[in-house]
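Please fill in the sequence for the structure shown.

STRUCTURE ENCODING:
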């Protein structure tokens, strides 16, 4: 007859196994907590919609550059993204959401984003990305010595207005009436670009109209009104609101059969005629370097605001053909991207 097992020994074995399991779980939790304590947190506010291909290229460039600097998302850094689609009201809400997460640093794209973040960030450092003339807008004291908690990467200078007009006249010489379009709320800096456009009116022989917009209906009205002018042309100024509506804008302009110039090559890939501006994905890539330096202890006011180093000229030949425009070999040779 078999003897019954020692119940006391069985209980002791169970207690030992339970103790080992509890100890392992405790150590695992402690290790995870320790890793969590060592993590840094980055809040990122982007001026495009979340499903926008251009906006996603910003994220890809930024994260790749961070990884090359040793910051791995989900490992030693947590990155929280918010997407405002050029909406000034939404920018305020999303900036508050990011600040509530208690980030170590904020990366803020576009003027309207910086305006929103500055109101709520307190002492949290801000690296601005693709913001026009930050000195004139009062974000920093100077490019060399920003002062305060904001530094980063600027984009358009006031003289760019004249450059866009010159390119539009080069690709469409017959244009005599040019309308500049921008959103009053999301691009308050746009008016800084107008004087340089006015400066070249006499030499390039054109009339200039300004058409501020606030919503999609305003955009359609502005384009339709421009289309009612003879020998009309359009200049779309840098603006996260307009940049978030590239397909809609390019389609409306095509219906009116107006030559138009845009502030980025992304518009040209959406069907726009010509685009000239900065590689914004490259600026996001470069911003990772400043994030790295601030997270390692440097102060934003000691990091000079940097200007763009990479410009892009893009031309859509299909759109040019539809408008009956001849693109000179010289202009084509200067283009960085040609859409067939």
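FILLED IN BY: designer on duty
SEQUENCE:
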């Amino acid at each position: 007859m078999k003897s019954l097992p020692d119940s006391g020994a069985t209980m002791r074995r169970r207690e030992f196994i339970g103790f080992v399991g509890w100890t392992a779980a405790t150590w695992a939790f402690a290790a995870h907590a320790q890793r969590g304590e060592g993590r840094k947190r980055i809040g990122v506010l982007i001026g495009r919609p979340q499903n926008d291909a251009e906006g996603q290229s910003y994220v890809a460039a930024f994260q790749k550059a961070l990884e090359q600097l040793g910051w791995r998302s989900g490992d030693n850094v947590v990155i929280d993204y918010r997407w405002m689609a050029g909406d000034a009201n939404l920018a305020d809400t999303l900036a508050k959401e990011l600040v509530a997460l208690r980030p170590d640093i904020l990366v803020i794209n576009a003027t309207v984003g910086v305006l929103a973040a500055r109101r709520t960030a307190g002492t949290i450092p801000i690296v601005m990305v693709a913001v026009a003339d930050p000195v004139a807008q009062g974000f920093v004291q100077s490019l060399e010595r920003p002062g305060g908690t904001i530094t980063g990467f600027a984009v358009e200078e006031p003289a760019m207005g004249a450059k866009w007009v010159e390119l539009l006249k080069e690709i469409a010489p017959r244009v005599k009436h040019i309308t500049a379009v921008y959103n009053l709320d999301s691009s308050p800096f746009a008016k800084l670009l107008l004087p340089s456009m006015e400066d070249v009116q006499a030499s390039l022989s054109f009339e200039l109209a300004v058409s501020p917009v606030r919503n999609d209906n305003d955009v359609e009205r502005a384009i339709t009104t421009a289309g009612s002018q003879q020998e009309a042309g359009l200049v779309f100024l840098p603006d996260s609101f307009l940049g978030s509506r590239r397909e809609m804008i390019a389609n409306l302009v095509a219906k009116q059969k107006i030559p138009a110039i845009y502030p980025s090559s992304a518009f040209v890939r959406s069907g726009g005629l010509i685009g000239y501006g900065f590689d914004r994905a490259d600026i996001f890539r470069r911003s990772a370097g400043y994030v790295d330096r601030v997270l390692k202890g440097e102060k934003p006011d000691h990091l000079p605001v940097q200007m763009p180093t990479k410009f892009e000229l893009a031309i859509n030949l299909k759109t040019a053909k539809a408008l009956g425009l001849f693109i000179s070999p010289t202009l084509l040779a200067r283009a960085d991207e040609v859409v067939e």
